[in-house]
Amino acid sequence: MSLTFDIFLLLYLIAAALVVARAKDLLAASIVFSSYGLALCLLWQYRGAPDVAMTEAAVGAGITTVLFLVAIGRTTRREK
User: Fold this and answer.
1) What is the pLDDT of residue 77?
2) Please, which residues bridge with residue 25 across strands?
3) What is the pTM assigned to this prediction?
4) What range does the domain containing 66 cover?
5) Helix, strand or coil, per DSSP, at residue 78
């Protein structure tokens, strides 16, 4: 079970990073980046570091996503 979960999370993190890097729609990229942060949160929790998992959830998936959405709202949604 643990090896399967590790491989699944690793593949998801790689796929999410590639989607974020190649996305032209900035709103979609920020949403996928938020899910990337939540997946990292799961990984840290699974690995036995709940303090790092909570920090990742608050900063990586929470505050960063809000800041990205505010910045996108003040600029354009699509990249040129």
Assistant:
1) 73
2) 78
3) 0.82
4) 2-74
5) strand
